[in-house]
């Protein structure tokens, strides 16, 4: 099935630039410039990825992100923000965006980011019903990653994760007790290591903790190693 991307951008020149470069990748696109219409489309239809500008008529990209994430937890979302708008980037990630890019952006980088998100989405959608051989499962304490079904469980209960959250948790489970810097996690999970995108990691760690921890403020599973980065504490997962 052809991947489909909804471009939500009120600047027609930018929207056309995105559309042309995604068509190069064989991706079907739709464009909406009005926030309210875009939200209605995003909720009513299936898209592999939403590309959301923050500043939109009627409903902001941040509000679209929040409402889509509440109604479609697995929807992949890439936010577009102004270069000097750090607060928008942080809010977008905290509301559930999988990634963000600042304007102006490189079209090659955009293509790479979109490909990365679509790979995650396609893996998530290709869950296999067969039981995975035990040796292929990743287990740390009560955390189990079923790679064939693309499912993560804690204490036997399936975790409701986005494709990016799943990949981040899987990376930690593959390397229990190993400390990773934010730059290392960006490269391993998102596939890039550009400076200035550390908020992406921070926000996803916060979102994972909210789903894993009894008390996210005192995390026992995904722990901060001050001045270095983060690790999965194997003892905390027991």
Characterization of the model:
This protein is an alpha/beta fold and 238 residues long. The chain has 8 helices and 11 strands. It has helices spanning 12-23, 35-44, 61-71, 86-95, 107-125, 163-174, 182-190, 198-212; strands at residues 4-8, 28-32, 49-53, 76-82, 99-103, 138-140, 143-146, 151-154, 157-158, 222-225, 229-232.
The H-level CATH homologous superfamily of the largest domain, spelled out, is Response regulator
SSE succession: EHEHEHEHEHEEEEHHHEE
| CATH architecture tag of the largest domain | 3-Layer(aba) Sandwich
Q: How far do the termini sit from each other?
A: 40 Å
Stretches with pLDDT under 50, minimum 5 residues: 128-135
Rounded mean pLDDT score: 89
Shape: globular
Report the radius of gyration as a whole number of Å: 18 Å
- The largest sheet has its strands arranged as 2-1-3-4-5
**How many E-type strands?**
11
Category from helices, strands and their pairing: alpha/beta
Question: TL;DR?
Answer:
The protein is 41% helix and 20% strand. With 238 residues, it is α/β, with parallel strands linked by helices.
What is this structure's SSE topology?
Blueprint: E1 4-8, H1 12-23, E2 28-32, H2 35-44, E3 49-53, H3 61-71, E4 76-82, H4 86-95, E5 99-103, H5 107-125, E6 138-140, E7 143-146, E8 151-154, E9 157-158, H6 163-174, H7 182-190, H8 198-212, E10 222-225, E11 229-232
Parallel strand pairs: 1-2, 1-3, 3-4, 4-5
Antiparallel strand pairs: 6-7, 7-8, 8-9, 10-11
